[in-house]
Amino acid sequence: MPVQEIMHRSVDKQWFCPPQSQAYSLRLTWLAIGALLWAGLIFAKLVSLQVIHHKEYARLARQQQELRVAIPAPRGPIFDRTGQPLAMSIPVESVFVNPLRIPDMGVASEILARILRLNAGELRNRMRWAYAHQRGFLWVKRKIPNAQAEQLRSLHLEWIDFETESQRHYPNGTLAAHVLGSVDHEEKGNAGIEMTLDRELRGREGWEMILTDVKRRGIDSQMATEAHAGTPLTLTIDSRIQFAAERELVKGIEARHARTGSIVVMNPYNGEILALANYPAFNPNEPPKPGEDSFGRFDLAVSVPFEPGSVFKVVTLAAALETTNLRPDSPINCNKGVLRLPGRVIHDSHRGYGVLPMQEVFEKSSNIGAIQIGFRVGSQNMYEYVRRFGFGSTTGLRLPAESAGLFRRLDRWGKTSLASIAMGQEVSTTSIQLARACAAIANGGLLVKPKLILKQGGQPTPMESPQRILRPQTAITMRQMMEGVVLRGTAKGRARIAGYTSGGKTGTAQIFDVKSHRYTHQYNASFMGFAPVTNPAFIVVVTLNGTSGSTGMGAGAAAPVFKAVATEALRVLDVPRDLPDLNPEPERESPADADDLSIADLGSGEPNVMEELAAQQSAPGAAVYASSDVVSADAAPAEAGPKVPNFRGKTMRAVVEEASAIGLPVLFDGSGIARAQVPAPGTVLHAGERVRVQFAR
Amino acid sequence: MATLATYFRKDDTVIYGEEAPVSARRRVARPADPYRLRSLPNEDVYFFCKRIDNTRLLKEKDPGATRQCWSAIGAFALLAILLAGALAPSVWGTFAGYQLQALKQERQRLIDERSTMEVAEAALLSPARLERLARARRLINPEPGQVIHLDPHADGSLAMNLHK
């Protein structure tokens, strides 16, 4: 058939070319029906996806597109008062593996062990155990150094993964370790300030949801929970003084073969602790090893009380100045070094003295003299003043496990308790309590609360109002007497500081052995002092525990440490000199070193205060002591008080100096030149009396 | 124009057409040679290319159509611009988001790095290390009397004051 014919026939057929309107209408109808069906199907699918299964698909989409990321909230840093960091938290990597995805555990353990310095066999066993128990997660090593993390990352092994954690660093190592404390592996404080202020220091981690693309790159983020970083703390500690204190403490302990020791350096006016050092120390960067003796982590200055010995005579004499008419030049009978008490004979450790002025009793640290003064004070007053100085109660320092020491209630005092307490026995104190007492002398009679936190979150912490416990005149007199100890007394040549005046008191107490129920021939050598005398910049309390021999006394062992620490602290604090910068007289070794030893032989079979403290028993009625003192202040011979000098015509400054020199309490009225005074010049002043001076221009 | 199959099967047509009736051609076909190509449908339809010369025809100008065309182009362009304008913030936001997230990560990295460096600095400045360095260089604390306190000049300077 020719082609033209075929084509012609095809074109002529009716069905092939129907009328246009009809054909379009039919096709459009079918097309519309098809489109509607298609649209219906799509709509149905959309309803299924977005309404019926909305939650499920939304969850799947979130899982795929959103990333939950932790916002780190590092633990608050701790600084010293100069802004030097003492403790900081930095992010570090922890490495973990998925044992179910490890192709070859032998090779994997070898790789990891070599980089992370682990035991390959042990790691392989752990991996196998995890695999056998179908565990998909196994910590390999936590908090690894950045270099190791980078090395592992460069391997690009899919079964190794990392998690960022925070690690506490103490960049100064052992410096102020007992103050700072330490944290556990979860960065929870377990000692020191880290423990006491854990809630403030601990940050609260936040979370944010990050919308990611297919390559897990972040596009948008939405904060879920806000992170709260830990509160930064600024301590009152000065790292330079702290370092000097720790260094000199170690030197002193090594030189005198002591076992332990502590030093407290404190600002006497506001109670700020400038240094608190203990020996032995520990490195808070290193967690305690299994079986390690935890004694090195004890804050001895705060938690471990001891019998103070002769340093406690400061309290006795301050009470005497306040409650009796005794003055520094008042004669005290030292009974030639022997004093018989009910059931007990007390000997002075040095050669016996006869009658000495009270100042010399203090300078030579005569036990008999201190007891005689204590008798003048009386049990009630002594009890009250010991309590006023804060002994027997905690100082409120924000450190854990602070000990209140032990000071028995008055109704539990024994027959010789007053005598014992007057020379620093039958009472146990901590170094921080001694520091507070010494600060009261140094600041003019105010009991301040020791303070360790200078700023919290950038805000200065408020200072609690100090409590007046001594008259300013008493404190000034005590300062002068304590200067006498350094210039002429037991600490002569050992605590003098070039260019500065200094005052202090030595103390040596025998250590009581609870097991053998006896005092040993080992000592608690201590020294508490301040510098300069006129306007003390700080007080220092040094305690060396476990010294022995004549060089292990307070003067020989603790006073030189005081001198070294005070010299450094004066330089660091840039305190103006009040003396020519000359070398003080060289140290001496003489029998007088033993002068401050408190002979501790009880002789009456009564339980020792340290024994009682160790037993943690304080039940009332358990004491065997009588309720009243055998020797009371009334029994002592009446002592004439100081005569009132003639202040007329003198300036107020001159009156203050003259009155302070003899320990007279003076009340001032007006200003200018002294015109009148009551009582009249030459009158003997009795206990509790004061001189009123009227000034006019 | 014939295909190769048509060409090679010309003899088939001859056999079927000449030796048997049409009815029998279908029923009694010779056993097919499996190696022979089969004919394609409509193989006998021939097409040819006819050359048409339209160069003599001239398109009549239609200003209305042109206007409509440009209007359409303008409308589409406007629509495209509006669409782009509407989508631009979203796109910009996405890119900004990428940048923001990258900057956030960088910021956190720098914060972490600073913390690490502060710790390192504090360790370097620790009193114990400074003491070691001082000892290594044989530095000592001045003895009493060795420290000379200079009185400042009127202008407050202290330098070279000792020799005046």
Structure keywords:
heterodimer, A: 697 residues, alpha+beta, Penicillin-binding protein 2a (Domain 2), Beta-lactamase, six-stranded mixed beta sheet, elongated, B: 164 residues, mainly alpha, 57% helix
Oligomeric state: heterodimer
The 3D shape of chain A can be described as: elongated
Number of helices of chain A: 21
Rg from alpha-carbon coordinates of chain A: 40 Å
What's a quick, concise take on this entry?
The complex is a heterodimer of chains A (697) and B (164). Helix content of chain A is 34%, strand content 23%. Chain A contains 21 helices and 29 strands.
Could you explain the architecture of this structure?
The complex is a heterodimer of chains A (697) and B (164). Chain A has 21 helices and 29 strands. With 697 residues, chain A is an alpha+beta fold. In chain A, strands 2, 3, 4, 5, 10, 20 and 21 form a 7-stranded mixed beta sheet that branches. Chain A has a 6-stranded mixed beta sheet with strand order 12-11-25-24-23-26. Chain B is an all-alpha fold. Helix content of chain B is 57%, strand content 0%. Chain B starts with a helix and ends in a 28-residue tail after the last helix. The interface between A and B is medium-sized, with 36 and 31 residues.
Task: Produce the secondary structure layout.
The complex is a heterodimer of chains A (697) and B (164).
Chain A: H1 3-12, H2 20-52, H3 54-65, E1 66-71, E2 78-79, E3 85-97, H4 105-116, H5 120-132, E4 138-144, H6 146-153, E5 160-169, H7 177-180, E6 182-183, E7 189-191, H8 192-196, H9 198-201, E8 206-212, E9 218-225, E10 233-235, H10 239-256, E11 260-266, E12 273-279, H11 300-303, H12 313-323, E13 331-333, E14 338-341, E15 344-347, E16 355-357, H13 358-364, H14 367-377, H15 379-388, E17 406-407, H16 417-422, E18 427-428, H17 431-442, E19 446-447, E20 453-456, E21 459-460, E22 467-468, H18 472-487, E23 503-513, E24 518-531, E25 538-548, H19 554-573, E26 597-598, H20 609-615, H21 652-662, E27 666-670, E28 673-678, E29 691-696
Parallel strand pairs in A: 2-10, 23-26, 27-29
Antiparallel strand pairs in A: 1-8, 2-3, 3-4, 3-5, 6-7, 8-9, 10-20, 11-12, 11-25, 13-16, 14-15, 17-18, 19-22, 20-21, 23-24, 24-25, 28-29
Helix pairs in contact in A: 4-5, 10-19, 12-14, 12-15, 12-18, 13-18, 18-21
Chain B: H1 4-8, H2 10-19, H3 22-27, H4 63-124, H5 127-136
